[in-house]
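Q: What residues go here?
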């Protein structure tokens, strides 16, 4: 297995993941996200949720104002700005925690970075040249995700000849394109996009072969928390998917195949990450 990359440079932050994966807490300031839509739409509720995740040990907060669940439709720029920017401003004033903005809109990213964010989490992998310019100008960290289609269409019969080869090839191409566009290598992480234009079989194949993505020599961000394939396999409702989500997180820690876990349940995930990482570090070094 290739050596795992251990750092992510995000503006003033250098995020270190040598001893354990980082836990990225999800804060959806939306009425219609698939898991927590409507819970944090009001600023007071969003701030309370952010504070809980920080207290629970989140390493990063990922704040998004537009749902990307299957079938969702885009919202206006003004609406997304009104949802996201006040929350970023308040949290960055209260805490030094690194903040990621989950957006496809360059202007939302620009204003969030001005307000204190340091990461752009873009489900379109910075395919908009204007987003590339924002990331470059602010020296932001970027998360590049694979998605077949758009949120509105992505689950309408997604097809691949070889899902692992195709997703990995797309991410490799984006990494090299962005290097040429002036985004530093150490500022990028990759996300195979579980559930974004994939069937259950595609998702399972990507998870089973996740270590292959380390060949791209960038940290892997994995987002599976409460997703539909967990509910389908286990026959569990949205509220009953914690154990399934933790099982996938545990697999990633054990495989050392993901360096950032994007989750709704910060405290439980952090417990799994810390305990398994501690056990792994206690194992004798085969070379000694």
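A:
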């Amino acid at each position: 297995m290739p050596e795992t990359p251990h750092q992510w440079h995000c503006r003033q932050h250098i995020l270190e993941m040598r001893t354990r994966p980082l836990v990225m807490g999800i804060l959806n300031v939306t009425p219609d996200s698939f898991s927590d839509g409507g819970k944090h739409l009001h600023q007071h509720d969003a701030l309370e949720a952010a504070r809980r995740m920080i207290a629970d040990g989140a390493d990063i907060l990922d704040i998004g104002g537009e749902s990307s669940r299957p079938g969702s439709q885009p919202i206006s720029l003004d609406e997304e700005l009104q949802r996201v920017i006040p929350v970023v401003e308040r949290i960055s004033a209260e805490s030094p925690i690194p903040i990621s903005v989950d957006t496809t809109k360059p202007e939302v990213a620009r204003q969030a970075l001005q307000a204190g964010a340091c990461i752009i989490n873009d489900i379109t992998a910075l395919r908009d040249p204007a987003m590339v310019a924002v990331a470059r100008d602010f020296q932001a960290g970027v998360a590049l995700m694979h998605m077949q289609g758009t949120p509105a269409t992505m689950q309408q019969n997604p097809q691949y000849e070889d899902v692992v080869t195709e997703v990995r090839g797309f991410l490799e191409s984006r990494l090299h394109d962005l290097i040429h566009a002036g985004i530093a290598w150490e500022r990028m992480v990759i996300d195979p996009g579980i559930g974004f234009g994939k069937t259950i079989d595609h998702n399972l194949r990507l998870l089973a072969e996740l270590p292959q993505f380390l060949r791209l020599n960038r940290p892997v961000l994995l987002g599976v928390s409460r997703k539909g394939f967990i509910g389908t396999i286990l026959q569990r409702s949205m509220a009953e998917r914690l154990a399934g989500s933790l099982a996938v997180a545990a697999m990633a820690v054990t495989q050392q195949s993901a360096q950032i876990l994007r989750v709704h349940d910060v405290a439980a995930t952090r417990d799994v990450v810390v305990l398994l990482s501690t056990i792994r570090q206690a194992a004798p070094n085969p070379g000694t």
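A: Context that may help when evaluating the design: The domain at 8-282 is CATH 3.20.20.20 (TIM Barrel). The first helix runs from residue 43 to 55.
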